[in-house]
Design brief:
single chain; alpha/beta; Rossmann fold; six-stranded mixed beta sheet; three-stranded antiparallel beta sheet; 23% strand
């Protein structure tokens, strides 16, 4: 299989811009659709203040249980009786009512600005993140965000109310334009690992974190950091993909793929190469599923032609 890339200055028309960049007006309009999502309590481990009790790692009114000490635990909460009895340090956990910080981590790496049908993966990811942000606001939770790419990380601390959602959506739309037009860089191998490390610093214990990405840079280091993140927070992974990535089409003649920045020419793709390509995609998604099973995280694979609301409803109904 031969691949040749050449620069392309073709920009999408105004009518086609919504397919390649998230549009603020559309993201705002998803508020009504978000009401169809079930409350987090039906699907996730920790729960929200006001309507139900939450099982969180922190100080509270009522002792719940003790578990082995983990790095980062507050030493003031050590359970000395269990520690003395077992010979190993244990930490007390408490049941308490508290507000729930929600984070949406949105991948704007170069690989997200791609599609062979439907919308760019970055657009689908922004739609998913917007639905989650609106639902968090409707639940009374605080909402924050982290937009990341090979060039930058943009952090928004959690805040309450519609103003917080609007702030997040505007950054989603603005950052997408900047990241899509940024110079191509190859220093993206550790972007997912670095993002998980940042989230571990930003998110307090008991937070709920949604990572929306194509996970092209997922590797052992990223898996390790995401697992550490899941130790003190609830995490859901939403893997966005294009049909081309899941099943390389049969090519009998020279073909070309174009995004807004470059042109990629393909030829001589053998059946064996197509099979290996599809196998790599399946293996990466299976590794993500296995990590989620081990760490009790939610996982969903969402293609860029499907209804994002329906995909989230399926996720939370499991």
């Amino acid at each position: 299989m031969r691949l040749a890339a050449s620069p392309s200055r073709a920009e999408p028309s105004a009518a086609g811009l919504a397919r390649v960049e998230p549009q603020l007006r559309e993201l705002m309009s998803l508020a009504a659709a978000a009401t169809a999502l079930p409350p987090w309590a039906r699907s996730l481990r920790s729960r929200q203040h006001g309507q139900y009790m939450s099982r969180v790692r922190g100080r509270g009114m009522e002792y719940d249980e003790s578990r082995p000490y983990q790095p980062g635990d507050d030493i003031r909460h050590l359970d000395w009786r269990v520690t003395a009895r077992t010979g190993k340090a244990h930490t007390k956990l408490f049941r308490e009512e508290r507000e729930r910080p929600i984070f949406v981590a949105l991948d704007y790496s170069r690989s997200m600005f791609f599609a062979t049908q439907g919308v760019f993966k970055a657009v689908q990811a922004a739609r998913l993140a917007s639905l989650l942000a609106w639902r968090a606001q409707q639940n009374g939770d605080r909402i924050g965000g982290l937009m990341f790419s090979g060039q930058e990380h943009h952090e928004l601390p959690p805040r309450r109310g519609k103003a917080a959602v609007m702030r997040l959506l505007k950054h989603m739309a603005d950052d997408a334009v900047r990241c899509r037009q940024a110079p191509i860089t190859h220093n993206t191998e550790q972007v997912l690992t670095e993002t998980a490390i940042r989230l571990r610093r930003l998110a307090k214990p008991g937070s709920l974190i949604f990572i929306v990405s194509d996970f092209q840079t997922y590797d052992a280091a990223a898996a390790s950091e995401i697992a550490r993140l899941a130790t003190h927070t609830d995490v859901a992974l939403l893997a966005v993909y294009d049909a081309f990535e899941a099943n390389f089409p049969e090519i009998t003649e020279s073909a070309a793929l174009r995004d807004s920045r470059s042109l990629l020419r393909l030829s001589s793709v053998s059946a064996q190469q197509r099979q290996r390509y599809a196998q790599q995609f399946d293996e990466r998604h299976e590794e993500l599923r296995q990590l989620c099973r081990e760490q009790r995280m939610l996982f969903a694979a969402v293609d860029n032609t499907s209804d994002p609301l329906a995909a989230l409803i399926r996720l939370f109904s499991r």
